[in-house]
Amino acid sequence: MVSWSEGSYSSSSSDSDVSSPAPPAILCVEWRGLAADLSARCEHESICEKYVAFQSVDSGRRFLGCAQNEGPKCGYVEWVDPEWPPQLKTTLGRLWDMYEDENKLRLSDNLANAEGNFKVLKEKEKMEKDLRFFKLDFAKMVADKEQALAELGNTKIALTDRKKELQKKSISDKSATNIYQVFWAKAEKDLELMKKELKLMKQEREKTMKDSDEVMQEMEKVMQGRDALKKDKNKLEYMTGDLFNHKEETKSKIRKVREILDGFE
Hints:
By secondary structure, the chain is mostly helical. The chain contains 4 helices and 3 strands, in the order E-E-E-H-H-H-H. The chain has helices at residues 86-168, 174-208, 212-243, 251-264, and strands spanning 49-52, 62-65, 77-79. It has a 3-stranded antiparallel beta sheet, with no helix packed on it. Helix 1 runs antiparallel to helix 2 (174-208), helix 1 (86-168) packs parallel to helix 3 and helix 2 packs antiparallel against helix 3. The chain is rod-shaped and about 135 Å long. The termini are far apart.
């Protein structure tokens, strides 16, 4: 290791290099500040500053350089310590190569991690976009369901009016009356079930906004409900067709009921 004494200063021409820029330096408590006690002057004709090199094979060597703090520094460099022995230079060169290789590897890893994070962000944006579209579709489906329930309520009102009219008349065909009563009870039961399903569906809708899996399950339930409703409609149409085989005076009433059901679809 070199001596840090002030008396080791050398101003020989072989130890100075004024053409190349000053090498990077490292802070050293023993060798820092202005070299006011030395005769060296930089290209600005100013007192030089003490530095310790921290670059490749020159690491640890003391030198004098420009002390300008404002404006560009000149390229004046005057080495205080002689060049290191070949063995030490080889060792320092190897250490710096290892350091640079490690930095390159770290940069490569950081780049790979950044690319991975970028892909994850892109996938997240795509999932969020798909979820927004799914929520819109689900909201539209719920609106359609509510509209269907409103139409079913109108149907119930119409059926109530028809029931009152039929009750005022004397119906001699008991079988037709029984079928109508079954039909009416079925319609009321379906309406109550639909109301319960709507209430449950509204509760589930609030939960599904936080959990996409529950949204998919609720959507499947709604579709199944619609299919069941269509099946019930087919059954009602079949029962309505049977009514046409009975008394002639009830056919016009049943035809109107059937038109209302067709409008519900």
